[in-house]
Amino acid sequence: MAPLTRSLRRIQLCERGAELIEFAVALPILMLLVAGIADFAVLFQQYEVVTNAAREGARVGVLPGYQTADIQARVNAYLAASGLKDPAPAPVVTYSTTPVGGAGLSISVVRVVVQYPHKFIFLTPVAALIGAGPHADIMLAAAATMRVEVAAAP
Hints:
Elements: H1 2-13, H2 18-61, H3 68-81, E1 92-100, E2 105-118, H4 123-129, E3 138-147
Antiparallel strand pairs: 1-2, 2-3
Helix pairs in contact: 2-3
């Protein structure tokens, strides 16, 4: 009876295969974490492109002789050159004057707002698996405002 008790106790205390089970539990969590990091890296890169496209549009807008269509064309060209091929909504361009100080002085400014839809690569399918809707995409938006320089008359 004593050898049987020792054999049963040895089987109960044996931890063979425990690492494999722990790895099987931890691997999906690790893969989800890596996929999330990759998705947010792409999101941040696209946000930087959208921000720079707004700046480029504002730079074109402050130059004399350029119209709203020129600004929109520059923004779309910048987005396409940066690899954002999906059609983005037309950038919003506003020309306005802003009061400066209390003396009634004002300056002219150009404001360009660019929006671009971002589609998650890995997180949307994972969110759909756990019951979230398929519309887990977000809209990236950036705005740039620049002062219109007026050349002084000689």
